[in-house]
Amino acid sequence: MKYLNLEVDLLRRPEYLGSDPIDRATWLNLMAWSASQENGGVIQNCKEWPDRKWQQLCGVTLSEVHRTCELFEFDEGGNLTVLFYPRDKETEVLQKREIARKNGKTGGRPTTKKPRRKTNKKPTSVSTSEPTPEPTSQPKKNQRPKAEGKGREGKEKERKEGERGREAAAPDPPKPPPPQEALVDRFPRQSVDEIERIRDCLANVCPAYRATPHLSQHEITGLSQNLAALSGLTAQQWVDLQAFRNSPEGDKAKWLFSSRLRLIENITEAVQKATEWRDWKDQNTLPVNGGRGPGNVVKLTKTKK
Q1: What are the CA-CA distances from residue 112 to residues 109, 115, 166 (Å)?
Q2: In the listed set 67, 89, 111, which residue is the last one of a domain according to the structure?
Q3: For 55-101, what is each residue's pLDDT tens digit?
Q4: What is the domain range of residue 35?
Q5: Which of 215, 226, 303 is nearest to 259 (CA)?
Q6: I want to staple 58 with a disulfide (CB 3.0 to 4.6 A). Which of 33, 148, 269, 278 is the partner?
Q7: Residue 129 forms part of a structural domain
Q8: What b-and-e string marks burial along 186-217, b requiring 16 or more CB atoms within 10 Å of the CB?
Q9: Which residues sit opposite 42 in a β-bridge?
Q10: Final residue of a domain: which of 73, 89, 105?
């Protein structure tokens, strides 16, 4: 056997717990040797083995084997019996090996065939009279007429008609609730009006947001988390956001305006950048590379017409 199955209850038996550690180790080595030889836990005619043979085969010494303990013992015939050896597991392995050997000779594991279902129908009697002519087939009720044409053209026409029928029978998908109703479920009426005002202001900052007037669930969640910051923006700050987005410096921070949800979640940072950009513009200076480091300032000069 390649594996040795030992139950945990076996290691909690009084015979094992009452033995010395050296006897436990000897018993385990004898158990492993017996499993490799599949001898049923009995080592035949081994009492006269020399010490070197015990060491080479079982990994134990002669003196360790001849100790008196409750885990292994010699019988009168000179055979060593390893107690608590799993003989039932060894028998199971040998049976499975024999079955596999027989199946291998016959070409593999036999396939299980389903038994035929018995029917109680009686055999039809043979009639000696003249056979009656078969009636001509009439189209059944609600039977679909065959598609016109032959071969591939008729099948293609029938397939298209089936698709039209399924599309006509398919129910219309449920319409999403209006944005007003979706907001009323989560916010009071005053907050709903304020959110709609903020949505219009965001659309003024980036006209691309008007393509999706309905707020998604993620955007509604973002509005609820940043409602105080968005409501506190002044009209000048909304104008600054729009101007900053359309400026060359806004192109460097275009990730803030890539989506409405991104702007809602980072509104504080966007307003800060827009305010700094307006202050630099009022001073007739425009930062280059974010205004980092000396010499990164370009003066704005007015051209004469």
Answers
A1: 9, 9, 42
A2: 89
A3: 999 999 999 999 999 999 999 899 999 999 988 888 989 999 889 88
A4: 8-89
A5: 215
A6: 33
A7: no
A8: ebeeebbebbeebbebbbebbeebeeeeebee
A9: 81
A10: 89
122 within domain boundaries:
no
Q: What share of the chain is helix, strand, coil (3-state, %, to 5)?
A: 55, 5, 45
Residue 172 lies in a domain: no
Cα dist from 220 to 167, 192, 275, whole Å: 34, 11, 26
C-beta separation of 29 from 5 below 8 A: no
Nearest to 195 by CA among 220, 225, 178: 220
Q: Parallel, antiparallel, or unpaired: how do β-strands 285-287 and 297-299 relate?
A: antiparallel
**What's the chain's length in residues?**
305
Tell me whether residue 145 is in a domain.
Answer: no
The tally of domains found in the chain comes to 2
Indicate the burial class of 255 (C-beta count within 10 angstroms; 0-12, 13-18, 19 or more).
exposed
Q: pTM of whole model > 0.85?
A: no
**Do 184 and 293 share a structural domain?**
yes
- Low-confidence stretches of the chain (pLDDT < 70) are 108-154, 167-190, 250, 284-305
SS3 of 214-238: CCCHHHHHHHHHCHHHHHCCCHHHH
> Residue 134: helix, strand or coil by DSSP?
coil
Q: Which helix (H) or strand (E) holds 242?
A: helix 235-245
Nearest Cα residue to 297 out of 225, 258, 246, 249? 249
Centroid of chain to Cα 181: 35
